[in-house]
Amino acid sequence: MNYLDYSRNNFNSTIPTAIEDLVPNARFFSIASNNLQGIIPRSICNSHKLEILDMSNNSLSGTVPHCLTTMSTLSVLNLRRNNLRNVAKLSVNCGLQTLDISDNQIQGQLPKSLVSCQQLQVLNVGNNQITGPFPCFIKIISTLRVIVLRSNKFYGGVGCPKTDGTWPMLQIIDLAHNNFSGKVPGRALTTWLAMMANEDDASSKLKYLQFQHNGTGRIYYQDTITVTNKGQEMELEKILTIFTSIDFSNNRFTGSIPDEIGELKSLHVLDFSNNDFRGAIPSSLSNLSQLESLDLSHNTLSGQIPLQLTKLTFLSFLNLSNNQLEGRIPSSNQFSTFPKSSFEGNKGLFGPPLTEENKTRLSPSEPEKNHPNSGDEIDWNVISVEIGFTCGLGIAIGSLLFCKRWRIWYYKTMYRILVRVFPQLEQRFGRHRRHVYISETY
Fold this sequence. Notes:
Blueprint: E1 3-5, E2 28-30, E3 37-38, E4 52-54, E5 59-64, E6 76-78, E7 83-87, E8 98-100, E9 107-109, E10 122-124, E11 129-133, E12 146-148, E13 153-156, E14 172-174, E15 179-182, H1 186-189, H2 199-204, E16 210-213, E17 219-222, E18 225-229, E19 232-236, E20 245-247, E21 252-253, E22 269-271, E23 278-279, E24 293-295, E25 300-303, E26 317-319, E27 324-328, E28 348-350, H3 380-402, H4 404-421, H5 424-429, H6 435-438
Parallel strand pairs: 1-2, 2-4, 3-5, 4-6, 5-7, 6-8, 8-10, 9-11, 10-12, 11-13, 12-14, 13-15, 14-20, 15-21, 20-22, 22-24, 23-25, 24-26, 25-27, 27-28
Antiparallel strand pairs: 16-17, 18-19
Helix pairs in contact: 3-4
């Protein structure tokens, strides 16, 4: 029997020690999504024809048997979502195309023996306790399509200057929730050729990423991974070969976002949130014509939102919140559909969809000249009043100082007004007033 599938049942015991008696000639064996406990018995390795082994979604514990990592026939090893603590060194005859040990309790460093798996397409070690620097040694595995290192304890930079090799087939890379730091190397991005394919090339390879054996009989296996897309975690039970994603969120990356990111024209998801990226948002992002989700929130980005981003007509999710952006929010095309939450936390931003109650928007009655980006403007209404007052005051004072006739008339007029208001002044001063100014004759 070549194909044994016991997945999605209610088995809740341990795996029988003599498991090889059940699968002596099996090429496909799955006990996924049960409630199996205990260790993985070494006898499973006695099935020398085994190509696909799926024990995911159980409660298995202990160590991944060393013999499993040395089976030259094994192409898919899926131990996802268990309680395993260690994985042994892989053999030089490694024929794995998929290695998924995510969502376990794996500790220590990623084994360097992975370089022996020169056919590896999917490497998923996410949600463990793996530590160490970025595994530059896997750069020589040119067949890699999916790399998931998220939610571990990796640290340091991601540049590998002394390592030869590229990932021309890479379509998904997830480094989120680690302690990676330093700058994102722009040159490395330009070696990810699968993300640089134009729209015509992408449509021509519309299919699912899967293991396929074309020997006697045909066996298919489709990989499953969890990605963050449009702010939500979602499980891809079938990975389209045209789906591309970069998730570097929740690390400590610094510096500017490299302009080279704009060369990844078939990228669908880009998440650089919760880092310390600085500088302006590169206008080269407008070249990502297939981009559906862009998250640059919780960084220290500054400057204005490039107007060129309005060309991203496929963009359905945008988050630029909690940066230091300024200026008016673009309002054309897709930008008119994004909610207020996409722009909050940027004190210098204004315009829809931010409301008047939001501190980041100027109220309609407030002149835009107060905004730092609007330039210095002259309010001629205020200036004309000041000029008129100054000129009038100057004429009045000048007339009194330089025209004797005006000066006499002014004092006579003021005296008559005061006498009418205060009659007692006439009795008090009488004719002792200054005749030079009030006499009828001059």
